[in-house]
Amino acid sequence: MIEATAPGKVILFGEHAVVYGRPALAAPVTHLRARATIEETGAPDVALIAPDLGRQAILSQVNPNNPLAAIVRVVEQYCGCSLSDGYSLSVTSAIPIASGLGSGAAISVAVIRALAVYMGDGRSLSTAETSQLAYEVERLHHGTPSGIDNTVIAYEQPVYFVRREPQPVIEPFVVAQPLRLVIGDTGIRSATKDVVGDVRRRWSADPHRFEAIFDDCGRLAEEGRAALAAGRLSVLGTLMDENHECLVRMTVSSPALDRLVAAARRGGALGAKLSGGGRGGNMIALVTPETEAAVMEALLAAGAVRVFTSDVG
Ligand code: MEV
Q1: Of 25, 40, 244, 279, which sits with the fewest C-beta atoms within 10 Å of its C-beta?
Q2: Tens digits of per-residue pLDDT, 207-225?
Q3: Ligand 1 atom closest to residue 163's alpha carbon, by position in its atom list
Q4: CA dihedral of residues 278, 153, 25, 276 (deg, nearest 10)
Q5: What domains appear along the chain, each with residue ranges and CATH number?
Q6: Alpha-carbon Rg for the chain in angstroms
């Protein structure tokens, strides 16, 4: 049996603006993982199994848009090989879907890693190749992803990311003082693709206004990177607050996200913002050991369906 996993992620600065070429910072959520398992069956086909969703399908019979089939096809195309018979591929995930934590990219990376092992030593995939293949899968589903999700998830380290052609800028960022984040889930599912598409429509209708907001987000990501390198956590918190305000101006926040962000700040967080596509999903709050419990309590009292912590650095 082959097993491979991949983590979730949070965006510290720059979601949405990153799609338009501005810098962004993201970090893996290492304890929240997607898992892919491959077992040889010897059968003349491939069983695709998603026990969490109660779904099972046969590769040769599914719609090409089936998310697991799409990953297998992308890997087959890249490797110039057939992966169409003789095994079952099962996927489970602790990362809630459509919640801004990178569940789609994590599933892609876990499956690509498992398929790379299944193909054998001669064809192992580098991290860069794994990320690139996951990006291709993201493009099938999301239209215009920036590439930040597949990158932070495949590299499993905090990254400074700028979308560029032909290659993005990917640099690990320095964390002088480790961060503790509290992550709060609104419980509202929101498809990143839809929100990214809506931002694109608004940007087309008023490019001047949206470019200015994206510029502000890019500046905050650069300042955030400097604050992280200097270990200036209170500055970092203020920058996160400012990033949330930019996301409000972009219309990607929601009453539930704003409520949780405000509750975290009242609970003593150094700063808080939505994380990911927005309109639902999760928010993050920067806390200290002294404020962590109060912030978690405040988030639950404000309606978070789930809260947990994650460390960066
Ligand atoms: C999603 O995690 C981040 C977005 O900026 C979309 C993307 O970068 O592809 C909203």
Answers
A1: 40
A2: 999 999 999 999 999 999 9
A3: 8
A4: 0
A5: 2-172 (3.30.230.10), 179-312 (3.30.70.890)
A6: 19
